[in-house]
Amino acid sequence: xxxxxxxxxxxxxxxxxxxxxxxxxxxxxxxxxxxxxxxxxxxxxxxxxxxxxxxxxxxxxxxxxxxxxxxxxxxxxxxxxxxxxxxxxxxxxxxxxxxxxxxxxxxxxxxxxxxxxxxxxxxxxxxxxxxxxxxxxxxxxxxxxxxxxxxxxxxxxxxxxxxxxxxxxxxxxxxxxxxxxxxxxxxxxxxxxxxxxxxxxxxxxxxxxxxxxxxxxxxxxxxxxxxxxxxxxxxxxxxxxxxxxxxxxxxxxxxxxxxxxxxxxxxxxxxxxxxxxxxxxxxxxxxxxxxxxxxxxxxxxxxxxx
Length: 306
What we know:
Blueprint: E1 2-5, H1 10-14, H2 18-27, H3 51-54, H4 68-76, H5 79-86, H6 92-99, H7 104-121, H8 127-142, E2 146-149, E3 157-158, H9 163-182, H10 189-199, H11 206-224, E4 227-228, H12 232-253, H13 259-289
Parallel strand pairs: 3-4
Antiparallel strand pairs: 1-2
């Protein structure tokens, strides 16, 4: 299996979040990125014109026991902004989230704070520049979301091409899809997020966490059931679509701790749901093409009734 970047339409990423990013520039606490209040110590100005100079920001050129990148933030952060930031309470939970390398929102906050400070150091930041900055940073963070892509070596196949083998596969698949239906795959996700956004009750997201566990169960079953060679392409389509859906649900379930990840996931939800329906219909059509029939007593009978 491979990890592939999750693609998200550029417009969907930028629309609705640019304003949030610009606001974030002014309210993120300095302590979150290791920046304290100014001590009045005179600092050597940092003149950054080349990529080589940017690469030296981890040094302490003025020997004040503070990395140059922190000095840069201290010298470019407006005192009024710093005062507002310092009134915010930073909990241990907040710090844990910020230090989580997989938390896209925390990573975005750090990068936005540092880059905006650099831009302000080198001149006025126009509204257009702010838009481009927001778009670039959000797109970079979104590209870190990966979807597990399975290959034919990740599933169980059978050389048996008899009608019985195909019926056995159909019955197993129908049983699994019936279970997936009870897990409400592709359903109720939007309602959960809307209710969470209204109430801010993080416990509402527990249902999405449970759904993610159920999806993992389905993926495991899809990988272990014997698949006739003729059904492999159809089966792979279904497996990888459910894998993409799993990534989306995982993102939504982190709405409280990682809003940006949830935002990207929500932006792709409609597309993923459509692909989920299409992949299920496609794999069911396999049995029509192969002229596989089932009696009303067999689980596979439900496939051809859809």
